[in-house]
């Protein structure tokens, strides 16, 4: 496979609203990001995936865009954006824009026009259908609860919205829509961005009348067309958000020969702690099975071969914090946060850090729905309450899976509001910011931050981590996740005990060199070792 910069890179995701406020309005901004570029350079990352910063009425925190070529006033100006790109460049940090083109905001000029009349030039930019027997056109559902069809009084038709009713779906079958999107992408490419993260890109080939949403028949044709019209001949990084992807589907997107995307986010591991079956979704909780986690991640490690590339992540702005979710955010907070870093960053693929993950930020439990800000959470709560779920059960699900968990303000130091803002933060700051913060992490050489920093540095030093073969060790306790990476005659062994109990592990080969660990080890592990609670290490065995 031709080597590209992004194969060896680590990407840091910023959710701008919660990163750093500089003007006291309680909302993070672009100047706040610029202020912390030195921190990110110190961590060693190569690129920032910037969640949307475009003009937006914020029905879904910027994922509802009303102007793709303007910056949200709360976040700053186009000048700030240009400075972010150039200041990033000085530090070897590229900016990856969030491309949200499955839908726009209902305040986008195209939709404002489209809804005026059936004859409007922009009408066909969106998906309009007549009522069927006085009701919605069909059974399509919104990810944010309820029907995906909204009735529009003015013209007496329904429009499609796979997310909130303020996020009307674009009609990708319309050639003009596609050309407008490509022109907009070129606007950002000309500004010097490093690539695009493509929001729910698996939905753009939808066939609403057949109730096909993901993986529609024209999806890959559109992506190939986009590639040719925009980034194809530039050295950019692209990553598609594709919820239902299997390894076979991942190859369609990311096989370099097909000229589509660099890589995708697959979510198979993310769904392992939800109940399976008809009508069940992420709110229906079940405990994680570690053997399943091993099986799923290992499958993805080997399945793509030379025909695709993996993204590696535990967290993003839609997911709960990994240390709270599958680790232990009290007794073994530091150990389990480091374990998840070591386990993932030794795998093959491009790792993504979500802001705050590098200091072990945790979920923030709410006790009442009035504390929630996220539209998905609020809509689900209303819907399920009406269906007869108890408040207690719903709050439990929200505390486990709600999107606000990962969106609380970045914890910089132990001052009021964690140094995020001098004003009223838009979303509650976790009180554990007194202990869990960047300042403490930077002062302590054993902190989670320095584990991340070291893992990132190791990736730069060792081609084995980027290119080596992967093999799961199968003869282990259920709770022990161990694998080997091999490259050019060298082999490393990664061992991680994802539990609060000690477990023995028989090392197939003697350790020659200790690469990294989350407990302090005086000797290189040999023979049969006892892995302590959440212990993880990497050793060279040949
Ligand atoms: O997420 C896609 C998506 O389907 C999520 O809403 C996901 O299903 C959910 O959060 C987990 O249950 C992307 C963005 O990442 C998300 O923030 C947006 O809300 C959504 O698209 C719409 O743009
Ligand atoms: Ca601000």
TrEMBL record:
**SUPFAM superfamilies linked:** (Trans)glycosidases, Glycosyl hydrolase domain
GO MF assignments: alpha-amylase activity
Q: Which residues form a coiled coil?
A: none
In Gene Ontology terms, what is a biological process of this protein?
oligosaccharide catabolic process
Keywords, A to Z, come to: Glycosidase, Hydrolase
Q: Does the keyword Secreted apply?
A: no
Q: Is-annotated flag, keyword Hydrolase?
A: yes
**Residue ranges annotated for the Glycosyl hydrolase family 13 catalytic domain, each copy included:** 13-407
Q: Which domain of life is it from?
A: Bacteria
Q: What's one Pfam family here? A: Alpha-amylase
**NCBIfam families xref list:** PRK10933.1
Q: Which family does it belong to?
A: Belongs to the glycosyl hydrolase 13 family.
Q: What name is this protein filed under?
A: Alpha-glucosidase
Query: What species is this protein from?
Result: Enterococcus gallinarum
């Amino acid at each position: 496979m031709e080597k590209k910069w992004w194969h060896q890179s680590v990407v840091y995701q910023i959710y701008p609203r919660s990163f750093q406020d500089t003007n006291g309005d309680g909302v993070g901004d672009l100047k706040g990001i610029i202020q912390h570029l030195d921190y990110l350079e110190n961590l060693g990352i190569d690129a920032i995936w910037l969640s949307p910063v475009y003009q937006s009425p914020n029905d879904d925190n910027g994922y509802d865009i009303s102007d793709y070529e303007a910056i949200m006033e709360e976040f700053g100006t186009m000048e700030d954006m240009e400075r972010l790109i150039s200041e990033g460049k000085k530090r070897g940090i590229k900016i990856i824009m969030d491309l949200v083109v499955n839908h726009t905001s209902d305040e986008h000029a195209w939709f404002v026009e489209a809804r005026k009349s059936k004859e409007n030039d922009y009408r066909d930019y969106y998906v309009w259908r007549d009522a069927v027997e006085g009701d919605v056109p069909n059974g399509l559902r919104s990810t944010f609860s309820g029907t995906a069809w909204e009735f529009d009084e003015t013209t007496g038709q329904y429009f499609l919205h796979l997310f909130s009713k303020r996020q009307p779906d674009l009609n990708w079958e319309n050639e003009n829509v596609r050309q407008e999107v490509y022109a907009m992408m070129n606007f950002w490419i000309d500004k010097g961005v490093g690539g695009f993260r493509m929001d729910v890109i698996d939905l753009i080939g939808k066939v609403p009348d057949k109730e096909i949403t993901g993986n529609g028949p024209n999806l890959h044709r559109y992506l190939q067309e986009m590639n040719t019209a925009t980034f194809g001949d530039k050295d950019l990084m692209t990553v598609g958000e594709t919820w239902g992807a299997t390894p076979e589907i991942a190859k369609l997107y990311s096989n370099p020969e097909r000229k589509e995307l660099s890589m995708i986010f697959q979510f198979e591991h993310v769904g392992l702690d939800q109940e399976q079956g008809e009508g069940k979704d992420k709110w229906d909780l079940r405990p994680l099975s570690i053997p399943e986690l091993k099986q799923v991640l290992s499958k993805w490690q080997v399945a793509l071969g030379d025909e695709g590339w993996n993204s590696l992540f535990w967290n993003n702005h839609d997911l709960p914090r990994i240390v709270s979710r599958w680790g232990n955010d009290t007794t073994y907070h530091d150990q389990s946060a480091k374990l998840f870093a070591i386990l993932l960053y030794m795998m093959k693929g491009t790792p993504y850090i979500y802001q705050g993950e590098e200091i072990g930020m945790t979920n923030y439990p709410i006790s009442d729905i009035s504390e929630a800000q996220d539209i998905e959470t609020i809509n689900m709560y209303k819907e399920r309450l009406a269906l007869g779920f108890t408040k207690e059960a719903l709050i439990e699900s929200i505390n486990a899976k709600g999107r606000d968990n990962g969106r609380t303000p970045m914890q910089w130091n132990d001052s009021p509001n964690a140094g995020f803002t001098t004003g009223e933060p838009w979303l509650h700051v976790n009180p554990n910011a007194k202990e869990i913060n960047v300042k403490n992490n930077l002062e302590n050489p054993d902190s989670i931050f320095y584990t991340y920093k070291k893992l990132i540095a190791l990736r730069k030093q060792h081609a084995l981590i980027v290119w080596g073969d992967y093999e799961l060790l199968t003869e282990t306790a259920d709770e022990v996740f161990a694998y080997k990476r091999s490259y050019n005659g060298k082999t490393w062994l990664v061992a991680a005990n994802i539990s609060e109990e000690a477990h023995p592990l028989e090392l197939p080969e003697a350790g020659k060199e200790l690469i990294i660990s989350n407990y302090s080890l005086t000797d290189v592990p040999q023979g049969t070792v006892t892995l302590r609670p959440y212990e993880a290490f990497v050793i060279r065995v040949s």
